[in-house]
Automatic annotation (TrEMBL):
Pfam families: IspD (PF01128). Pathway: Isoprenoid biosynthesis; isopentenyl diphosphate biosynthesis via DXP pathway; isopentenyl diphosphate from 1-deoxy-D-xylulose 5-phosphate: step 2/6. Keywords: Isoprene biosynthesis, Nucleotidyltransferase, Transferase. The keyword tRNA processing does not apply. Belongs to the IspD/TarI cytidylyltransferase family. IspD subfamily. This is 2-C-methyl-D-erythritol 4-phosphate cytidylyltransferase. SUPFAM superfamilies: Nucleotide-diphospho-sugar transferases. HAMAP family: IspD. NCBIfam families: ispD (TIGR00453). Its EC number is 2.7.7.60.
C-alpha cells in the first residue's frame, strides 16, 4: 500500500454555476460539497496528507466556518491560482516528501465509492499513472457551423474523471514543462508517460450547474 498525498483543487470561479458563489459551498445532505470530498480521503490509512486548494477570496470563510473540522481531519489549506493548472502548481511544493503517489481529485466531485478509490490507487501504484474514467455511452457528433460534420466512433472514447493519481516525479516533471491542458493526465501524457484508465461510474459527477447538486444527492444515497 503506497503512501498517498491528496490534492483537492477548490479554487475555481464556478462561473457556470451561476450563483456568484463558489459551488463547493453548496449543501449536499446538510454538508458543503467540499466537506464530502475531504472525507472521502482523510480517514483512509493510505492517505498521509490532504491539501485543500482554495481561492484567496474564499479562505477566510472556509477557516471561520470549517477550520475546526479541517484541522481535525489534518487538512492543510493552500491558496490557489488563477486557473486549475496554477492551483496545482501552487500545491505541489507542499506535498510531503514521504508521498509515493499524488492523487488529484476535484473538490466538486463529492460522490465516490471506496472501492473506486482503491482501484485507481492500485493501478497508479502498479503503472505510475492512472485515472478514473467512464466509457462514453452517448452518440458523439462533431459540429461545423451548427451542423453535424460527422458522427464520431465512440467505441474507444472515455470521459475522464478524477481521482487522477501519479508518481510524484512524473507529475512534477509534467507541470515543470509548463504546458496547457484541461486535466492533469493530459500534462503527464505530454511528458511522455502512459496513463492507465480505470473504469469508473457515472455517479462520480462533477458539480458544475445547480441541477447537478440534486443528481449528486441521489447518487450519494445509492452508496450509503
Amino acid at each position: 500500500m503506497a503512501n498517498v498525498s491528496v490534492i483537492l483543487p477548490a479554487a475555481g470561479a464556478s462561473a457556470r454555476f451561476g450563483t456568484g458563489r463558489n459551488k463547493i459551498f453548496e449543501l449536499l445532505d446538510d454538508q458543503p460539497v467540499f466537506v464530502h470530498a475531504v472525507r472521502l480521503f482523510s480517514q483512509r490509512p493510505d492517505v498521509i496528507q490532504v491539501l485543500l486548494v482554495v481561492a484567496e477570496s474564499d479562505r477566510d470563510e472556509i477557516i471561520a466556518c470549517h477550520g475546526a473540522f479541517l484541522d481535525g481531519e489534518g487538512v492543510t489549506i493552500v491558496i490557489g491560482g488563477t486557473d486549475r493548472s496554477e492551483s496545482i502548481r501552487n500545491a505541489l511544493p507542499h506535498v510531503t516528501g514521504n508521498a509515493e503517489l499524488i492523487c488529484i481529485h476535484d473538490a466538486a466531485r463529492p460522490v465516490l465509492a471506496p472501492e473506486w478509490i482503491d482501484a485507481v490507487f492500485a493501478a497508479a501504484e502498479e503503472h505510475g499513472a492512472a485515472i478514473l474514467a467512464s466509457a462514453v455511452r452517448e452518440t458523439l457528433k462533431r459540429s461545423a457551423g451548427g451542423l453535424i460534420a460527422e458522427t464520431v466512433d465512440r467505441s474507444d472514447m472515455w470521459q475522464a474523471q478524477t481521482p487522477q493519481v501519479f508518481r510524484p516525479d512524473w507529475l512534477i516533471e509534467a507541470y515543470a514543462a509548463g504546458g496547457s491542458a484541461t486535466d492533469d493526465a493530459a500534462l503527464v501524457e505530454q511528458a511522455g508517460h502512459p496513463v492507465h484508465l480505470v473504469a469508473g461510474d457515472a455517479r462520480n459527477i462533477k458539480i458544475t450547474t445547480p441541477p447537478d447538486v440534486a443528481f449528486a444527492a441521489a447518487a450519494l444515497r445509492t452508496l450509503q
